[in-house]
Design brief:
Elements: E1 9-14, H1 22-35, E2 41-46, H2 48-51, H3 58-75, E3 83-86, H4 92-103, H5 106-110, H6 113-119, H7 128-142, E4 148-150, H8 156-173, E5 182-184, H9 219-227, H10 247-259, H11 264-271, H12 276-302, H13 305-334
Parallel strand pairs: 1-2, 2-3, 4-5
The structure holds adenosine-5'-tetraphosphate.
Length: 342
């Protein structure tokens, strides 16, 4: 463990690999907004280098990156207070990732469940980038010496690997240089599930649009998706224990709780005994009330593309001012001739 006192600094990212989902919002973005404030420096990134580990149409990648930036701002990230940028514009991420490719072990990567899920049965045909994804993610975090990383539950294993990489680097080189980052996985909706299948995570890349709520969906679409969400025939229980073996019911209750800043227990104390026919319209109304202002603001910002590009460019400049000296110090520790402390 490290003795060094690191500046309390938050880093997290979202892939512009599709449109933002309610899962990304509740599991990540809403939490990013909560952490913005006097306690931390906050750095948020559109991780476009991660997105291309699976095929992205270039025009769609451009659009999705700008729309994601609009989503960050519409959700409450202030680009003056937080650093907001896209990953490819800060080359230090990829440069540190190479060092980490040489620190991480093949066996560590092979154990990653996201690799297994995304590569599927045809691993030989998956990109090398998809395999090395967690080393780039470790670099994203550690290039800023970030101490806290808010993420959804699905990223827990990658964050453990980030800690392993930091520990191994520090041990291999006999330094106390990289912090051992704390994952921040909190709230009622750390894993929002598909609306069609309570055993699958809600995901941008799910082929079924009915499986997810997109942050750009209009009120009618949100209400329709919730109305058609898979459920069971029983009434809602009054306590969380009663949701055991009812993944779809649990999911809708968790989503309601997260949208309303409550715990699932508090929600069930109010709605226990109700049938889904009554609960779903309540959830739809709440979801529309919370999400519509964000989607309206996103649409407005998307009409100001040049302004989004300016915010991203300015964010990248500020990010590089932190990342460049840390990369140079890393090179110096590794023994690269020409590296000098920034
Ligand atoms: N369903 C979810 N519930 C809670 N949190 C979630 N996150 C993603 N899905 C859920 C969190 O959102 C952040 C950004 O995720 P990402 O875009 O980097 O990649 P992902 O986790 O792979 O998300 P998707 O939507 O499933 O993207 P695709 O389909 O491209 O793979 C992370 O903090 C993640 O935990």
């Amino acid at each position: 463990m490290t003795e060094t006192q690191f500046t309390p600094r938050v880093f997290s990212g979202i892939q512009p690999s599709g449109g933002l989902t309610l899962g990304n919002y509740l599991g990540a973005m809403k939490r990013f907004v909560d952490m913005q404030g006097p306690d931390f420096e906050t750095i948020y990134c559109m991780v476009d280098l991660h997105a291309i580990t699976v095929w992205q149409d270039p025009a769609a990648l451009t659009h999705n990156t700008r729309e994601l930036c609009a989503g960050f701002i519409a959700a409450g990230i202030d680009p003056e207070q937080s650093i907001l940028f896209n990953q490819s514009q800060v080359p230090e991420h990829a440069q540190l990732a190479w060092i980490f490719n040489c620190v991480a072990r093949m066996g560590w990567m092979q154990r990653m469940t996201q690799w297994k899920d995304k590569a599927g049965k045809n691993q030989q045909n998956a990109s090398l980038g998809l395999f090395a994804y967690p080393a780039l993610m470790a670099a994203d975090i550690l290039i800023y010496h970030a101490t806290h990383v808010p993420v959804g539950e699905d990223q827990k294993q990658h964050l453990e690997l980030t800690r392993d990489i930091a520990i191994k680097f520090n041990n291999d080189f006999g330094v106390d240089f990289f912090p051992i980052t704390e994952p921040v996985i909190e709230g009622a909706a750390t894993r929002v599930m598909s609306l069609r299948d309570g055993s699958k995570k809600m995901s941008k890349s799910d082929p079924s649009d009915m499986s997810r709520i997109n942050m750009t969906d209009d009120a009618d679409t949100i209400a329709k998706k919730i109305r058609k969400a898979k459920t069971d025939p029983d009434a809602l229980p009054s306590e969380v224990d009663g949701l055991e073996d009812r993944p779809e019911a649990r999911n809708l209750v968790n989503v309601y709780a997260a949208l309303n800043d409550q715990t699932s227990d508090q929600v069930l104390a109010e709605v226990g005994g109700k049938q889904f026919g009554e609960f779903k319209p309540m959830l739809a109304e709440l979801a529309v009330a919370r999400l519509s202002p964000i989607s309206t603001e996103m649409a407005r910002l998307m009409g100001e593309e040049a302004e989004i590009d300016r915010i991203l460019a300015r964010g990248a400049e500020k990010a590089r001012a932190i990342a460049a000296p840390i990369l140079q110090q890393t090179y110096e520790i590794v023994g690269m001739v020409g590296a000098k402390q920034g």
